[in-house]
Amino acid sequence: MKLSEFTRPDTLAAARRTLRELGPKGMVLAGGTALHFMQGKTPVTAVDITGLGLSYIKQKGNFFVIGAATPLSDIQRYRGPRWAMHEICRRISTHQIRNVSTIGGNIARVFPWADLPVVLLAMDARMVVYSGKEKEIPADEYFSSQPARLFRGGDLLTAVKIPVLKAHHGFGSVKVTRNAAAFSLATIAALLELKDGVIKSARVAAGSAIPFPQRLKPVEAALVGKEAVTAVFKEAAAAAGTAAKWVGGEGMSADYIRELAEVSIVDALERAAEFARGRAE
Amino acid sequence: MTKTTHTVNFTLNGEKKTFGTRPDEKLLTLLRREGYRGTKYGCGQGTCGACTVLVDGRATYACLLYAMQAEGRTVRTIESVGTFDKPGEFQKELVAAGAVQCGYCIPGMVMSATALMETEEVFEDEIVKEYMDGNLCRCTGYEKIWVALRKTLDRQASAPAKRAGKKSSSKGSKK
Q1: Which of residues 95-124 of B touch A (CB under 8 A)?
Q2: Domain ranges of chain B
């Protein structure tokens, strides 16, 4: 992407105004790491939002609120009660990228291999979008198709709200890569609510091995009401084939990738169940 | 480079500087053009780590940062860590361990290690690997680099008085 101009608005309202005026010739910049790889010959104006105070993590009531311009390394280092976001952030790219790349950049325009949409879908997060005033969009709606659709009119993602996990709730995420810094082959995230060893509710999401991150509802359905044990997890994971269109690549067949995803689903569920049990005592 | 259209101000290796630039110029290009050639151009796409510099104390790929993004920040390059005549501690250990073959990755390695040493208190292997996971070496197989780094870190960890002194002085200057 070719930058011809660079602006640093000092308020959210000014940033939105500038983006509205620029239309397709404006581009939000936070970490900016993705901009270097975006196609397009038309020169654009970078609208730098890093001066708007959008880099923070705080616990507010039943939510952790993460500012949209918070770098992944801050999320990786943060610790709060029943915090689970650090695990996936540690697995994203390299130290230098995590220091710059932001949560907002990962989810405002979703690339198929992005990890955070998967985690936020499973976590039932809410995205805060500024359009003159702020409104919250639940993950299911936000990720129902390319979120960039929401920002065409100059609106901005300002924060992500992640529910604080309650007792008996557990979360697990798994990212499969060929080497530490590689793009994901399959990313799976699972949220389980247990009651007396039985799964009361489940949210399981996948990404990378499918065209766009999504929940795996047949897998979730196969879990609810059953015991949180490996045999049940395996049976549920077998529903992954009907839940999404698995795509091969890098010399791997679609069937292989699906099997990889199934194994990862079991792993993520085991982690989530362990989390739920461990913290319930 | 064609004509500059913008200016950017940042602190570079302790000195306040103003540079002419353009919105699409990378920080790496600016640094090398201005004579800071210790910072290397490797892959140019945020994979190899040869261009690593510190921005506000954090290791960053200079090839994936527009120069304009450095406005108001503190940038450090390999030139601030050591010179040929007066190398830094890690640089001395790298030479002693025979860890430098072609040497192209070394400035980046040193900058990532500098971020590690100036940020963390405890140098467990997992933490060290996390800080170094964005730097590739295609000659040594990493073992000798690791040996040199471990020696440097162990020495630093066993010199708490010096560290404490350094910490308090940097805090003092900030406030």
Answers
A1: 112, 115
A2: 6-167
Same structural domain, A137 and A218? no
CA distances, A10 to each of A138, A157, A186, A246 (Å): 28, 16, 39, 44
Q: What is the ipTM of this complex?
A: 0.93
**CATH number of the domain where residue A86 is located:** 3.30.465.10
Q: Which residues of A touch B (CB under 8 A)?
A: 2-6, 8, 29, 32-33, 35-37, 45-46, 48, 50, 73, 90, 93-97, 99-100, 180-181
Q: Using the beta-carbon criterion (under 8 Å), do B64 and A33 form an inter-chain contact? A: yes
CB contact under 8 A, B68 and A95: no
The pLDDT score that the predictor gives to residue A181 is 83
Class of domain B6-167: alpha beta
Both A158 and A175 in one domain: the answer is: no
Angle in degrees, CA A145, A112, A262, rounded to 5: 105
Contact B64 A32 (CB under 8 A): yes
Q: What are phi and psi of A172, to 5 degrees?
A: -145, 140
Q: 10-residue block means of pLDDT along chain A (281 residues)?
A: 94 97 95 89 94 97 98 96 94 96 96 95 98 97 97 96 96 93 93 96 96 97 98 98 91 94 98 85 40
Same domain, A273 and A181: yes
Contacts of A218 (CB under 8 A, 6+ apart): A239, A240, A242, A243
Structurally, how many domains does chain A consist of? 3
**Confidence band, pLDDT 50/70/90 cuts, at residue B161:** low
Q: Find the domain containing A43 and state its range.
A: 3-48
